[in-house]
Design brief:
InterPro entries: DNA_repair-scaffolding, DUF4503. This is DUF4503 domain-containing protein. It is a single chain. The chain is α+β, with helices and mostly antiparallel strands and 490 residues long. It folds into three domains: 156 residues, OB fold (Dihydrolipoamide Acetyltransferase, E2P) (Beta Barrel); 118 residues, Nucleic acid-binding proteins (OB fold (Dihydrolipoamide Acetyltransferase, E2P)), CATH 2.40.50; 102 residues, Beta Barrel (OB fold (Dihydrolipoamide Acetyltransferase, E2P)), CATH 2.40.50. The strands form five sheets. Strands 1, 2, 3, 4, 5, 6, 7 and 8 form an eight-stranded mixed β-sheet that branches.
Length: 490
């Protein structure tokens, strides 16, 4: 009796003691989530594999506007990006874990190096909600790219599914959103991991993506940005375009039936950009980026919420050189019948017309280039620059000029191009000038090119018509200077 009483007492003490680490860790997200408490906190730790690390924009609460008057404006726009993990357990279930917000000093790369591909344990997680494909299409698009698993999954009876049946496993139809506790270490790397479940992003060439990746599927690649089309001077906006290329697209030879372009447009939409990438895109120089988990679309690639853009810092990549000889010119496709809108091309042609309705000129400051000069009262042709805070006696005159070209590479088409300042000045400097100014007749017949251009519009009905805009490729490429030559008269 006494021995039995002691055993019961020891058992009671053992039940009151904290469980050991191994006893508390579960390998099933579903089991732990279904057993969470009334407040939504998971009572047990769970082991998972971190498939991806990325950032999402913080969604402000609906009543946030009521507090905005008490928060300084600078503070209200900081810490807007939340660190997130996409995790998977050995049974195949995915969860997205929202952790702390990243400050401007935080580097996403350090968290990728720390956690991605590692077996970790989630501690003290809170269950936010259960989502389905209909409610979070972009999240499930990423999950689909990680399916089927590369190793047999374990069912909840502790047996493993047969390897030959992995491809037949149904794609996950739901996912849980979890949140870590603020100020606490919610993710720890396991000392004795179970390897094999991690499916890393495979970096392909752009040519391989165009040839083999179906529309709507995820892809990863490294490419050089040769042209940026921003809505403002800064890439801090919801959507903008990057035009990229790599050696696989610059090869001269093409196999029969291939119609890929030498450059490819990348739409960056709702994607979190971190400081190193923002700084690189804010300059006019070339930069080489790695795009991870982007989506292949028709004639373009889209970077969405969970895509990650990183600077490619490999010292062996020649396009990273910021000093030294320029890189070879990036070859663009000739303007032709297959040219599509929102693409880049090169062209040569003879000026056969001028759009006089869109032609105009305006003064800019000859010191800073600021174009909002104020005319000084009482002084003719004198302006005041509010940016330089000085008088401008000899302002630089900028001009806008759009001309119609007859192109040898695309004769059955009306081609209209908006010229850049240097080309306009070259056209006008080679024209006859005098006290009467520049006459349209003196511009006609001038041969332009080669010009690099962005294709704004392609209209095929009722007639073939293309609207272009002359561009400069990013600094670092030895762009050929546009040539202006009088066209020989017959």
């Amino acid at each position: 009796m006494e021995k039995s009483a002691v055993s019961e007492e020891e058992l009671a003490v053992k039940q009151r003691e904290p469980q050991s680490v191994q006893e508390r860790i579960c390998d099933s997200l579903l089991e732990v989530i279904e057993g969470h408490g009334m407040a939504g906190w998971m009572g047990r730790d769970v082991s998972v594999v971190v498939q991806r690390v990325y950032c999402l924009h913080v969604q402000e609460p609906s009543d946030q506007h009521l507090l905005k008057h008490s928060v300084p404006e600078r503070e209200s726009i900081q810490h807007r990006n939340r660190l997130c993990l996409l995790v998977q357990d050995v049974h195949g279930l995915f969860s997205e874990v929202a952790l702390h917000t990243l400050s401007s000093d935080d580097s996403l790369q350090q968290y990728i190096n720390k956690w991605e591909g590692r077996c970790c344990v989630l501690r003290g997680m809170r269950v936010l909600q259960r989502v389905t494909r209909a409610r979070s299409a972009e999240l499930f698009s990423l999950i689909d790219s990680l399916w089927p698993p590369v190793v047999p999954l374990r069912d909840h009876g502790e047996t493993q599914s047969r390897r030959e049946d992995r491809a037949k496993l149904p794609v996950p139809s739901f996912c849980y959103l979890l949140s870590g506790q603020r100020g606490k270490d919610s993710v720890d790397e396991l000392l004795h991991p179970t390897p094999g479940l991690y499916l890393p992003a495979v970096v392909h060439t752009l040519r391989e993506i165009l040839q083999h990746v179906p529309h709507g599927h995820h892809c990863s690649f490294t490419a050089t940005v040769i042209y940026k089309r921003l809505q403002s001077s800064s890439p801090k906006q919801s959507e903008f375009w990057l035009f990229v290329t790599d050696p696989s697209l610059q090869r001269e030879e093409r196999e029969e039936g291939e119609e890929w372009s030498r450059t490819l447009g990348v739409c960056v939409n709702s994607c979190v950009l971190h400081l190193p990438v923002l700084q690189a895109l804010s300059t006019s120089s070339i930069c080489r980026l790695t795009f991870k988990d982007a989506v292949r679309e028709h004639r373009m690639i889209q970077c969405m919420e969970r895509s990650v853009l990183q600077l490619d810092t490999q010292a062996s990549v020649p396009s990273l050189a910021t000093e030294g000889p320029p890189l070879p010119p990036a070859r663009l496709d000739q303007l032709g019948p297959t040219t599509a809108a929102n693409s880049l091309c090169t062209l040569q042609g003879v000026v056969i017309g001028v759009d006089e309705d869109t032609a105009y000129s305006w003064p800019v400051c000859n010191l800073c280039g600021y174009d909002r000069l104020q005319a000084s009262h009482g002084q003719r042709q004198t302006f005041f620059c509010s940016l330089c805070n000085s008088m401008v006696d000899n302002p630089t005159v900028n001009m806008q000029l759009e001309v119609f070209l007859r192109c040898t590479s695309f004769t059955q088409c009306t081609v209209k191009i908006k010229l850049q300042q240097d080309t306009i000045k070259s056209v006008l400097n080679t024209s006859a000038s005098g006290s009467e100014g520049y006459a349209v007749e003196n511009v006609l017949g001038k041969e332009l090119g080669p010009l690099a251009a962005y294709v704004r519009v392609v209209t095929r009905k009722p007639a073939l018509w293309v609207a272009l805009e002359e561009i400069n490729l990013s600094k670092g490429y030895s762009n050929e200077a546009p040539q202006v030559r009088p066209h020989p008269q017959k």
